[in-house]
Amino acid sequence: MIYAVWVPLLMPLLAVPAARRAAAWLPPRAAAWTLAGFSIGLATSSTAALVLLASAGALRLPLVAAFAHLSPPLLGDDSPALLPASILAVLALAAGAVTLVRTGLRQRREMRAAHAGSPDAADELSVRPDELPYAYALPGRPGRIVVTTGMLRALDAREREVLFAHERAHLRGRHHLFLSAAELAVTLHPMLRGLREPLAYALERWADESAATATGDRALTARAIGRAALAAAGTPGAVARPRTALAATAGPVPRRVTALLSTGATTGRPRRALRRAPVVALLVCAALTAGTLAEAAYDLHTDVEVAQGEAQIPR
What we know:
Elements: H1 6-10, H2 12-25, H3 28-58, H4 62-68, H5 82-116, E1 125-128, E2 135-138, E3 144-148, H6 149-154, H7 157-172, H8 175-188, H9 196-215, H10 218-233, H11 253-261, H12 269-307
Parallel strand pairs: 1-3
Antiparallel strand pairs: 2-3
GO molecular function, one term: metalloendopeptidase activity
Cofactor: Zn(2+)
Keywords: Hydrolase, Membrane, Metal-binding, Metalloprotease, Protease, Transmembrane, Transmembrane helix, Zinc
């Protein structure tokens, strides 16, 4: 079992690059779901592996063995690396739990502070009297589009509609939950940090496409996003907003504008094969993770049954 549990713990080394490459080929919505899903799945799998590893060591403690009515010498895996690995697993679980709680509380504080600083509005639009041009989607009940007078002056009427459609797509799609889940996943497995940036990009592209569909003009959407980003780039310092609140001016804007203006021409057969390769790699990573985790759980269960005298020792 001690060897099988290492696969879920080390799988992000392979899965993260494969997920980033797959996200680059997938449509924005599919890419966002894929990245968020793998972040949660890999974090959950690695946490389960740590729990199995910690349990294997804990069962060898006399007090735990007596409580479980088992004989430690019959537990099977007597690798000298088991005890130190179990101790490290317990420490990792404790650190992850503390960081998870702290991150969740910080996200909640940021959202509350942002809502407290937003003036009440009869509709979803909350206009702040501020010369700094910025805008972002503030989730909550109700969700609001926070925009400053500076940003409104930087855009014309049609470009404002694009901006509102973009931020509205973030609110309706509940995109903050994707970012929040990815951020919480990183607290459980730091190797997943590499998925947060492509996930944020996929969410912005998702909102870009929604805005282009709502306005019916991709060129206008690209121009509005570019002008809003240029206006926001001239502000002194970063605007304080929740980390999980998305904004149309965030991320690699030139790349997003290029994607909006692209013709979307079909690609040849070799190019389609290249698109499938990262997706296949992700499926292989998922299968390996699930298989080795199930194998580790089965091995531990079998060892416990043998140590309790409920099963014969395998030969």
